[in-house]
Amino acid sequence: MSDVCWVLTTGEAGMRSQALGLAEAVGLPIEEKRIAVRRPWASLPGGLLPMPLSALDPSGDRLAPPWPRLIIGCGRRSIGPALAVKRASGGRTLTAYVQNPELARTKFDLVAAMPHDRVDGRNVVAVPTALHRVTPQRLAEAKTEWRDRLGSDGRPLLGVLVGGDNANYRLTDAVVARLLQVLRKAHAEHGFGAAVTPSRRTVDMAKLMIGAAFASEPVGTLWDEDGENPYFGILALADRLIVTAESISMISEALATGRPVHVLRLEGQGARHEAFLNRVVTEGLVSPIEGDDLDWSFAGKAPIYPTMEPARRIRALLGMGD
Length: 322
What we know:
Order of helices and strands: EHEEHEEEHEEHEHEHEHEEHEH
CATH superfamily of the largest domain: Glycogen Phosphorylase B
CATH architecture of the largest domain: 3-Layer(aba) Sandwich
Shape: elongated
Structural class: alpha/beta
Largest sheet: 6 strands, parallel
Low-confidence stretches: none
Strand order of the largest sheet: 2-1-3-4-5-6
Number of domains: 2
């Protein structure tokens, strides 16, 4: 057995971030394993794969001995392979899963899930937000690295994390126009400069609209996607943050800063996202943007680091201590 942690995902950024964040908090050396499942097995629920290791597609990483001390999986296709490795190791490999492993919930040693995942049990650790890789140390490093590059001439900084279209939501021109009006008012009435970073899901028209507005008005800057993304710098340096509401991951990462977080709704609706949004609004963790202005009285909450408790539990199960 190798004294490492395998992180099993199918490679999606959101899943990688959650599983890696938990693995980094545990502290074992990490090996990422990007898995792919062959047809017709890819359409089955992860816990129902009859021979999970045989169902893996060679386009993904191979899973073979020496088996790891710990596996952390995220995404339903990682469920069967993770549990297969546990069996192959004679139960010596500890298995953890992020989100809801559905039918396989009782088979994992630990499950880290948010309330809207609707899973409970003795092996389940409830976490308030999505797991991620934002830590006090990373924020301190980013603050030093980006202080000069994101300087706003002494003005307070409004960090803006823009997502985009997904299966349930759309970043429409009307939403972008509303965001720009919010930024104009923040600049004119409160002296804030904006630092905006788009994501891979941000449509070109949205970036063009923001870029054109900033070219004619001294409101802020837009990352042009050339060179290093200022995402962590924005998290570290912003006095307030605006996050588009379709991204649970970005909202969760923003909440690790301890700064006021404002969410801008996109057009559309998704049940899991709405459950998460309704809860964080009700608990006073974020402030929804109403109209074209921020709630400037909203002060936010203390930083939230959701990996701490599940990592502590995993370390205890591994006999690693604190």
